[in-house]
Write a structure and sequence with these properties.
This protein has about 220 residues and is an alpha/beta fold. Helix content is about 20%, strand content about 25%. The structure holds NADP nicotinamide-adenine-dinucleotide phosphate.
Length: about 220
């Protein structure tokens, strides 16, 4: 299955100097207000924002565009959720009748759960058997007109996207903090490579240093 050449898949993430994207308790408010403005501007320029189900469960995000002077409507929201365990009281489902929302499940999801999600106004696509088949998903999304997709984590989804060869851009805010914790989620989780030589190579295209000592790294893959 070929991925189209004008498909852009951008990972944006904020991490601490020690590579964590959340603390041991799941606190992920790492970016400064200024960096969040940048993120929301980026959101306003993409067709869809994608996150993994753990991020929805832990952060309960809205995933919309919240900048006063930007008129563009919020992009679609795509949630990767094999079994359909998205909380029924999540902000995503509660706003699904106003903002286009697609929940991607697999054959593991019960029909009752799919019906329940549909009843909030969210669309459900069944793609994959155990975990969501991302190459297939991105092809389907492309055919649906989604050509610029912003992936906002978490670590497991980042790993799957990067190792599937689907990601074109990585934008990384490094916050001048160290938070530690073996169980704190890092930028990329998954099973990992055993050799450095197998790692995914990145090309650094731009670096921005902010007055608050945040650094923003722009990579191409
Ligand atoms: N600082 C930041 O920029 C930032 C951004 C986002 C998130 N976060 C933090 O990241 C943490 C969550 O990250 P996480 O790594 O635990 O989870 P995640 O990436 O949000 O979600 C992963 C889950 O998605 C489901 N999934 C289904 N198909 C998949 C596939 N092909 N590849 C990967 N996942 C698939 C799996 O659950 P099922 O099998 O149950 O479907 C998997 O466990 C939260 O603490 C959040 O606060 C930080």
């Amino acid at each position: 299955m070929s991925i189209k050449s004008d498909l852009r898949v951008i990972i944006n993430s904020a991490m601490t100097v020690d590579g964590k994207i959340s603390t041991i308790s799941g606190d992920s408010k790492i970016s400064s207000k200024e960096d969040l403005v940048r993120l929301h501007k980026l959101r306003s320029k993409v067709d869809a924002i994608m996150v993994g189900i753990n991020t929805v469960i832990i952060d309960n995000p809205m995933l919309n565009v919240r900048i006063n002077n930007i008129k563009k409507k919020s992009p679609s929201r795509i949630i990767i959720d094999s079994t359909g365990k998205i909380p029924l009281n999540s902000k995503i489902l509660r706003s699904a009748s106003q903002i286009n929302t697609i929940i991607i499940v697999t054959k593991e999801a019960d029909k009752d759960i799919i019906d329940k999600i549909n009843s909030f106004g969210a669309k459900v696509l069944v793609i994959g058997t155990k975990s969501v088949n991302l190459p297939k998903l991105f092809n389907i999304l492309y055919e649906m007109g989604y050509k610029k997709i912003l992936v906002e984590g978490g670590g497991e989804l980042n790993w799957s996207c990067i190792t599937s060869g689907l990601v074109t851009d990585l934008i990384l805010t490094i916050s001048p903090k160290i938070i530690g914790g073996k169980k704190a989620i890092t930028l990329v989780e998954g099973s990992g490579y055993s050799k450095i030589s197998n790692g995914v190579n990145l090309q650094l295209v731009r670096v921005t240093k902010k007055k608050n000592n945040e650094i923003i790294l722009y990579y191409k893959l």
